[in-house]
TrEMBL record:
One of its GO terms (biological process) is dicarboxylic acid transport. It is a multi-pass membrane protein. The chain crosses the membrane at residues 45-65, 77-99, 151-169, 196-218, 224-246, 308-329, 349-373. Its main location: membrane. It is found in: Cell membrane. Signal peptide: none annotated. This is Proton glutamate symport protein. Pfam families: SDF (PF00375).
Length: 423
């Protein structure tokens, strides 16, 4: 397999996993063999994410060393995230209104799935507001936040610690050297773990297909196709325009990230590619300080794919029940999702939890989510790609906005990858 690149190996794992899952559809034995492989791969990635985020942010922030400059970067980043996610929500509502994916589907042909595991965590989001998000950013106990994987609290501590290291000058240099070493070691570990990716992808997709089967997609094919079309439109048109404004070719970026996009799609997990995203964006010319702050923060505040999906899914369920949603109700839905979709990325089944907490507020039966829970994984794969791609572009946008983007580095890296011809 060595002569094949990682992307081809992952694609091979994906295809074989789908085939094995389809052959053993309805046979629970296959899950006992494959699930441990998939779980080990996800655990390996989760194991290195927090050390990479902490070390990258500490090194990046200490390099900036200026509270005012960092505050400006934070403000600009949140503003950019809010604009892009709002566009994603509006686009989702437009697509659902124009194509009506839930109209004309008889509920008796839909397979209903148990969603109690999502209901159990919904209370975390039910009264979730901006104030709660900002209070929860500050950890009361760092070790508790590390154990829970609470990314916003970890980012806050890392930023404050980085500023503290910068403030003590010469005394902070050994600390900075240590974290720089940790960062390099973690990226080296990432490259080793990625060799296991094709096997992890094979196991994860095999379990999914063996559980739900290919035939479970047919009644909901209109919704699945619409979600995929909307996601592609968002990347090519919306993010394409943003990339054009900042002078980046969206297709070049797509080729740079092809391994990560395929891995994110196969595993339906953004976490699996976080270490490589930070590394590749720095190689592409983004500032280390900007990249190490923007990408981890985007994993909580810039979930473009998730917000786009939530808008479509909410209207799909309304249409399924024959509920008319006037413009006023859709504006309420938009505003509610703008609040509930922020800062809860660590919650399991995040998009479902957000929707469960939101639907009741706008008069849509939350039980309707049970009809799409079985195929949610297929749509989760697409929204994960959009989340990953959106956050990569955000690192470029913010680096250029801060005038900390190295165009020569970008050109050299694109030539190295044979994306643009060498002279």
């Amino acid at each position: 397999m060595k002569k094949f690149g990682l992307a081809w190996q992952i694609l091979f794992g994906l295809v074989v996993g789908i085939a094995v899952g389809a052959i053993f559809y309805g046979n629970p034995t296959i899950e006992t063999y494959l699930k441990p492989l998939g779980d080990v791969f996800i655990r390996l990635i989760k194991m290195i994410v927090i050390p990479i985020v902490i070390s990258s942010i500490v090194v990046g922030v200490a390099g900036v060393g200026d509270t005012k400059k960092l505050g400006k970067l934070g403000g600009k980043t949140i503003l950019y995230f809010e604009i892009i996610t709002t566009i994603a929500l509006i686009l989702g509502l437009l697509f659902a209104n124009i194509f009506q994916p839930g109209s004309g589907i008889k509920m008796d042909v839909l397979q209903k799935t148990d969603i109690t595991k999502y209901v159990d965590t919904t209370h975390q989001v039910g009264s979730h507001g901006f104030a709660d998000t900002f209070v929860n950013i500050v950890p009361s106990n760092l070790f508790e936040s590390l154990a829970k994987g609470d990314m916003l609290a970890i980012i806050f501590f890392s930023v404050m610690f980085g500023l503290g290291v910068a403030a003590i000058g010469e005394k902070g240099k050994p600390v900075l050297t240590f974290f720089h070493g940790v960062s390099e070691a973690m990226f080296s570990m990432t490259n080793q773990i990625m060799k296991f990716a094709p096997l992890g992808v094979f196991a994860l997709i095999g379990v999914t297909v063996s559980k739900f089967g290919i035939q479970s997609l047919i009644p909901l094919s209109k919704l699945i196709i619409l979600v995929y079309v909307a996601m592609i439109f968002f990347i090519v048109v919306v993010l394409g325009i943003v990339a054009r404004i900042v002078g980046i070719n969206i297709f070049h970026l797509f080729r740079v990230l092809k391994d990560e996009i395929l891995l994110a799609y196969s595993t339906a997990s953004s976490e699996t590619v976080l270490p490589k995203l930070i590394e590749k964006m720095q190689k592409l010319g983004c500032s280390k300080a900007v990249t190490s702050f923007v990408i981890p923060t985007g994993y909580s505040f810039n979930l473009d794919g998730s917000t786009l999906y939530q808008a479509i899914a909410a209207l799909f369920i309304a249409q399924l029940y024959g509920i008319h949603m006037p413009i006023s109700a859709q504006i309420t839905l938009l505003l509610t999702l703008m609040v509930t979709s922020k800062g809860i990325a660590g919650v399991p089944g995040v998009s479902f939890v957000v929707l469960l907490a939101t639907l009741g507020a706008v008069g849509i039966p939350a039980e309707g989510l049970a009809f799409i829970a079985g195929v949610d994984r297929i749509m989760d794969m697409a929204r994960t790609v959009v989340n990953v791609f959106g956050n990569s572009l955000a690192a470029i946008v913010m680096s250029k906005w801060e005038k900390e983007y190295d165009k020569d580095k970008e050109t050299a890296y694109l030539k190295e990858l044979n994306i643009i011809p060498s002279k």
